[in-house]
């Protein structure tokens, strides 16, 4: 493969990466707040806390309740993102998440219904995460930096548990107990969102610290934006096989990720018999590897120039879904008497999922272009559905944590991952869809290839002139 640096050597600006880092921290915090119960449920003192007496159904309801909040807020958040500055929308979501998290210990002691209410509000904040990731990438990433921006911004799914699990494990094992986890998460949220309020702007042109050189680098090669927002072509999107390929891969992938988020602590603590402190630190290792793979996938996807963008999407998505499925199957045959081997395979299973950033995630932004925000909103809805159904699926199978039951859970996810990866191989396409053609669209493929859309699309080709992509009729 041929590689090329994703950063222009003459551009020394850093503001876009400052915005990237702060936004990633805020998205990470929102999901960390939402995931707190997934860990604290294993370290609650059964003798003194009501949580210890929850039934399996109540536990599933507590875990999935955030999905109700996310789904209920999906349409309002979409409207808010279109009508108001995205900075204020994320700050509002952060405020809701922080307050709800700080109140969880009090609400849990007050009653089950109050506890559920706090969890629902944690979910309300979550629905802004993926649209914000797409918006920041669209506004702040140069054309050659979309992969790395998406890698970090969608990497909050991994970073949340990398941050949460060691902190939760240490606090749960200390005299401070499980309640301290919620207070620490709320406290760090105040810090991160304060930084966001100071340093974030919706667009580079609004930032007081950015240089003209960095601004020009970010905007280089982009088409001029329309004076008003284009309407979303809902019918065309919902009848696009490429978009359905993105969404089906997203469902299988996110369901597997939710399984990891929700049940990793239980697998390590109840099945492999690690204590709470070790569960916290060991549980973060596979997710840390996954995040590393995600960053590698994002950077390498931007740097590989010798193959078409569509082929890269298919290869990276097959690695993310297909290889993870293979390791899920292998894990199903390893007994808990071999915990070290289980951990190694678990690390590989979770790690390869990180390649998703250069698979279906990137496909959605490339194919939908200016309408990518709607694709990301639907990804959030898919994630909410996964959060809603995953606890009931897994808890209905894991009645006594036996090896056979864990194997069934692994196989369910493996089959879904394999099926979705096969569909993506047939449907993936990096080229801009016909319904994006109302504006002059770019092809950040970096491999000059003929894009034959057929007579209904108007045959087009990508041409590079002085390092700027333009469109012209064949």
UniProtKB/TrEMBL annotation:
Predominant cellular place of this UniProt entry's protein: membrane
Q: Which organism is it from?
A: Pristionchus entomophagus
Q: Specify one Pfam family.
A: MFS_1
- Source species taxonomy: Eukaryota, Metazoa, Ecdysozoa, Nematoda, Chromadorea
Record-annotated Major facilitator superfamily (MFS) profile domain positions? 5-432
Q: Which domain of life, per UniProt? A: Eukaryota
Transmembrane stretches, start-end: 12-31, 61-81, 88-106, 112-136, 148-168, 180-200, 236-260, 280-301, 313-334, 340-360, 372-394, 406-428
The record's SUPFAM superfamilies line, in alphabetical order, gives: MFS general substrate transporter
PROSITE patterns given in the database record:
MFS
MF terms from GO for this chain are: transmembrane transporter activity
**Listed InterPro entries:** MFS (IPR011701), MFS_dom (IPR020846), MFS_trans_sf (IPR036259)
> What is this protein called in UniProt?
Major facilitator superfamily (MFS) profile domain-containing protein
**Where does the record place it?**
Membrane
Q: Which UniProt keywords are listed?
A: Membrane, Transmembrane, Transmembrane helix
């Amino acid at each position: 493969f041929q590689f090329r640096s994703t950063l222009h050597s003459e551009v020394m600006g850093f503001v876009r990466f400052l915005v990237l880092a702060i936004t990633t921290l805020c998205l990470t915090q929102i999901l960390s707040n939402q995931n707190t119960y997934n860990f604290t449920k294993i370290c609650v003192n059964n003798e003194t806390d009501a949580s210890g007496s929850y039934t399996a159904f109540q536990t599933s309801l507590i875990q999935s309740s955030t999905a109700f909040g996310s789904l209920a807020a999906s349409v309002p958040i979409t409207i808010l993102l279109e009508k108001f500055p995205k900075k204020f929308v994320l700050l509002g979501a952060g405020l809701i998440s922080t307050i709800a998290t700080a109140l969880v210990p009090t609400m849990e002691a007050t009653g089950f219904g109050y506890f559920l209410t706090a969890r629902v509000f944690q979910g309300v904040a979550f629905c802004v995460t993926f649209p914000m990731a797409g918006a920041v990438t669209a506004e702040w990433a140069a054309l050659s930096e979309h992969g790395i921006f998406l890698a970090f911004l969608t990497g909050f799914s991994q970073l949340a548990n990398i941050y949460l699990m060691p902190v939760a494990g240490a606090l749960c094992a200390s005299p401070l107990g499980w309640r301290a986890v919620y207070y620490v998460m709320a406290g760090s949220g105040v810090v991160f969102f304060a930084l966001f309020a100071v340093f974030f702007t919706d667009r580079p042109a609004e930032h007081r610290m950015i240089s003209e050189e960095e601004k020009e680098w970010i905007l280089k090669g982009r088409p001029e934006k329309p004076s008003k927002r284009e309407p979303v072509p809902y019918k065309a999107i919902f009848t696009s096989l490429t978009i359905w390929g993105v969404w089906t891969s997203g469902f299988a992938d996110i369901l597997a990720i939710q399984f990891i988020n929700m049940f990793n602590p239980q697998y390590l603590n109840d099945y492999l018999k690690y204590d709470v402190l070790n569960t916290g630190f060991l549980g973060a290792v596979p997710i840390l590897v996954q995040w590393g793979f995600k960053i590698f996938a994002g950077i390498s996807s931007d740097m590989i120039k010798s193959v078409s963008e569509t082929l890269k999407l298919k290869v990276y998505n097959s690695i993310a879904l297909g290889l993870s499925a293979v390791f899920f199957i292998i894990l199903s045959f390893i007994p808990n008497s071999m915990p070290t081997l289980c951990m190694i395979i678990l690390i590989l299973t979770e790690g390869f999922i990180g390649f998703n950033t250069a698979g279906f995630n990137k496909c959605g932004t490339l194919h939908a272009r200016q309408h990518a925000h709607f694709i990301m909103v639907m990804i959030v809805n898919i994630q909410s559905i996964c959060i809603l159904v995953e606890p009931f699926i897994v808890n209905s199978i894991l009645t006594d944590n036996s090896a056979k039951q864990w194997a069934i859970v692994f196989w369910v996810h493996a089959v879904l991952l394999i099926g979705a990866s096969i569909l993506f191989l047939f449907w993936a396409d990096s080229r801009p869809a016909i319904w994006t053609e109302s504006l002059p669209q770019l092809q950040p493929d970096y491999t000059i290839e003929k894009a034959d859309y057929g007579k209904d699309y108007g045959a087009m080709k990508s041409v590079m002139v002085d390092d700027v992509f333009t469109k012209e009729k064949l």
